[in-house]
Design brief:
The protein is mostly helical. It has helices spanning 6-47, 50-84, 89-132. The chain has one domain.
Length: 133
C-alpha cells in the first residue's frame, strides 16, 4: 500500500467488513446444511457409500470449524484496522500483512465452501430421488 493514508485504511476496513458479512452468511448456510445432513444421515448411510459419507461429513465439520475461526479472526482484524489508522507505520505494515493473509484465507475458504456445499446438495438430491422410488 506504500505510504498510508486514511482512505487506504478505510478501504481495507470496508473490504474486511464485507468478508464478515459473507462469512456470517456462510455460517448460516452451514447451519442449514447441518440440519439437512442430520435429517438424511441415516438414509444416506443406507443408500450410499459409507466411506464417502464419512469423508464428506468430516470435511463438512472442518469447514464449519474453519468458518467460525476465520469469522472470529476477521472480526478481530476489522477491529485492529479501526485502531491502525492512528498507529505507527511499522504496526500498520503488520496489519497489512494480516490483511493479505486473511484475504487469501477468505478466498480459499470460499472455494472449499462452494465445493462442499455442492457435494452435500448432490448427495442429498440423489438420496431424495432414491427415496421417492
Amino acid at each position: 500500500m506504500g505510504k498510508s493514508n486514511k482512505m487506504d485504511w478505510q478501504k481495507l476496513y470496508w473490504e474486511t467488513d464485507d468478508w464478515v458479512s459473507y462469512l456470517s452468511f456462510y455460517k448460516d448456510e452451514l447451519q442449514f446444511l447441518q440440519k439437512l445432513l442430520d435429517r438424511f444421515f441415516e438414509d444416506m448411510v443406507q443408500y450410499q457409500n459409507l466411506d464417502e459419507i464419512r469423508e464428506e461429513v468430516m470435511r463438512f465439520q472442518d469447514l464449519k470449524y474453519n468458518c467460525s475461526k476465520l469469522l472470529a479472526n476477521t472480526r478481530e482484524h476489522r477491529y485492529q484496522l479501526a485502531l491502525a489508522m492512528d498507529k505507527e507505520d511499522y504496526e500498520q505494515g503488520m496489519t497489512q500483512q494480516i490483511h493479505l493473509r486473511l484475504q487469501k484465507s477468505f478466498q480459499d475458504f470460499t472455494l472449499v465452501f462452494t465445493a462442499t456445499k455442492k457435494e452435500i446438495q448432490d448427495i442429498t438430491k440423489e438420496l431424495m430421488e432414491s427415496l421417492k422410488q
